[in-house]
Amino acid sequence: MARSRGLPSPEQILEFLKTADAKVGKREIARAFGVKGADRVDLKKILRKMADDGLIATRRKRMSDASGLPPVTVLRITGLDSDGELVGEPAEWAREGETPPKVIIQTRGGSNRASFTKPPGVGDQVLCRISSTDDETYPYEARLIRKLPGATGHVVGTYHPSSRGNGRVLSANRKDRLEFEVARGDEGGAQKGELVRAEITRERRHGTAQVRIIERLGDAKDQRNISLIAIHQHGIPDQFSREVDTAAAELAQLKPPEGRTDLRDVPLVTIDPPDARDHDDAVWAAPDDNSENKGGFKVIVAIADVAAYVRPGSVIDKEARVRGNSVYFPDRVVPMLPERLSTDLCSLRAMQDRPAFACFMIFDKTGRKLNHRFDRIWMKSAARLSYAQAQAAVDGRCDDVTAPLLEPVLRPLWKAYQALKTARDKRQPLELDLPERKLILDEDGRVERVITPARLDAHKLIEEFMIQANVAAAETLEKNRTPLVFRVHEAPSPEKVDGLVKFLATLGMSAPKGVVMQPQHFNRILSAARGGPNEQLVSQTVLRSQAQAVYTPDNQGHFGLNLRRYAHFTSPIRRYADLIVHRALISALKLGDDGLSEEDVATLEELAGILCMTERRAMLAERETTDRLIAHFLSGSIGADFTARINGIVKAGLFVTLTENGADGFIPASTLGQDYFVHDEQAMSMVGERSGETFRMGDMVDVRLLEVTPLAGGLRFEMLSDGTAGKPAGRKSRSAKPGKYRKPGNRQRRVSSKR
Predict the structure, then answer these.
(1) Which residues form the domain of 137?
(2) What CA–CA distance (Å, rounded) separates 551 from 488?
(3) CA dihedral 466, 591, 341, 624 (to 10 degrees)
(4) What is the DSSP letter of 519?
(5) What's the CATH number where 45 sits?
(6) Whole-angstrom distance, CA of residue 542 vs CA of residue 519
């Protein structure tokens, strides 16, 4: 159609978007290709189809190539190019198996100069505006917006002195494991093997860079210090300044003010993990007494009113913007807000008066939301319950706390949830139910055991109530045309879907063809695999095909939840994005003078970029710390055999996950056997070049632990199991010589106790 009527093809549109110097919308595309009159209708159809297929993204009526970096991105400076220009890459890159793109950071030219007390350098993180280039080496260029604070230009590792010269710091970063030189006098009193933080003092193009030790973090063998590695490696601020601490200490408990609705007689309850330190949401439900809504329910979701304490532009607010979110480690929490707020004034403690921001919702008997409204209230939580405690009460096992709450509070909550679940099932969000591991620590901070907590209806109840409140917030703000930060999850790209379809074919499974994939299509795939040998494999592969959720001022919907609009409203104690949504509601509904500031509105796009970075930073830091703690836990098990599942395959080897404790490790391809193994990317397998012996994603195998590097969180295993019989991969073009051919089945085995 496009060629016969002179309309541009999708390929031509993508090329135009990549080379455009200014903002591009439908009007600019039509003008560039000379599309006029009735042809504009067909152009809109082409653009809508491209958006549905994930080829383009629309932000505030301007379009961009969806395969690229966001227009505002946080970069980490990694070095210099041959012309001395700074080179960076995305600060946090979560696309497993993909190399992050290199970005040239423009620092020359008067209009691009930003004011820095110290110019940015290697290791620093900078907020930049991104544009694409035609350079294959550097496909993007960036213009500096501002340098971000944090422990940049630093390295965390263990100190190793030398009697013959300068000492060394061995990086704890699993990705590089670099050594840095420490000049005499720059040891900072560090002892042999001690965990330290060092500042890079001299970069070298060749050879070892030099550092100065600026902080001793403690004994590297003490597991209580393990989370400090990730905190300092990722530049997570973990100490509040004296100014912030003073400002927090001066805050006093609010008194019930005029204009705030008094709901202290309503038995709202908090339901959280048993070890939760902050409680920012409470819930209540009851049958609707409106005769026109028989079988329906009234629901209140009350959220800590952080905006009442954290005013825009205050020192506490500025610190919260930098942190972006709280970070949760097995042994500690790095909070976004000072503890005076996070665990005291803002936390919805049981039987204590607290200001809150409430979402009042009415649902019919099928769980369809009929209406909602927001108000600032005064509340008193009737009880602090754990998920297991609330679930046990509903299941008939009450304790002294839940017994008096069962009929008036808990039963109505569960009945309302059943109605909401009916609507959820009809909506069909993406049903990925992947188990999460939890580390149980002893009194000395050492890992005692690793468990997978049961997923209860109590968890699902709170989750669904929070989702509905988040949707209500987004709907209200969009209706009032108030700026906000949406929580966006885009549909998977056509390339990812195509890869998934091809992989499913290798398992004898099919996927819908000729349709734009929706969550229900993925759910059918997951359902078809449920209960079979490939259930976990298919779940992981579907997960990897999905895009990553982000914060943005532009509504693009939430694919995973199958919602047209979504915003985070329910966790302002631990997420700055939620605080922005609270302020937006205050401004839109005229509920006070502590709403959005001019700076909030002017920097919304930049703020969204920072919040995406801090969220990914927290996820990586939490995951790395868990890996390090489990590595410590297994350091006494070298030589032990385990059952594992292959959960990742790259050219270099196999990633495996132990079924016993969820520990992740690696088996180098060179150690699989004497055949040469080839990576079949489409079939997600490793195949012997001459034997045809095959290891596939999802295979259950026996492995032996050979090496543990606790500080890096690394585990190296040996394969004990034989692969399945398959077709030989055939000779590939390569420089390495193939190993001696070995028939499958002759691996030596040693008897070893499993732990």
Answers:
(1) 72-147
(2) 6
(3) 40
(4) H
(5) 1.10.10
(6) 11
Residue 267 belongs to some domain of the structure: yes
Distance CA 469, CA 363 (A): 12
Co-location of 128 and 252 in the same domain: no
Cα dihedral 424/425/426/431 (nearest 10): 90
Q: Does residue 371 carry a pLDDT above 50?
A: yes
Tens-digit pLDDT profile for residues 478-501: 999 999 999 999 999 888 888 888
Instruction: Return the axis-axis angle of helices 576-589 and 457-479, rounded to nearest 10°.
Output: 50
Q: Residues 377-402: what's their mean pLDDT?
A: 97
Q: Name the token pair of 287.
A: 């049958």
Alpha carbons 386 and 392: distance in angstroms, whole number: 10
Q: Say if 227 falls within a structural domain.
A: no
Confidence at residue 503, expressed as pLDDT on a 0 to 100 scale: 86
> CB neighbours (10 Å) of residue 705?
22
Which residues lie closer than 8 Å to 496 by C-beta, 6 or more apart?
Answer: 544, 545, 546, 547
Give residue 505's pLDDT. Answer: 87
Nearest one of 220, 229, 169 to 625, comparing CA atoms: 229
Residue 665's Cα: distance from chain center in Å? 21
Could you give the angle at the alpha carbon of 297 between the alpha carbons of 294 and 303, nearest 5°? 165
The string of pLDDT tens digits covering residues 516-547 is 889 999 999 999 999 888 888 888 889 989 98
One domain for residues 433 and 569: yes
Domain total of the chain: 6
Lowest mean pLDDT among 265-274, 500-509, 557-566: 500-509
- How far is it, in rounded angstroms, from Cα 395 to Cα 408? 15
Type of residue at 66: A
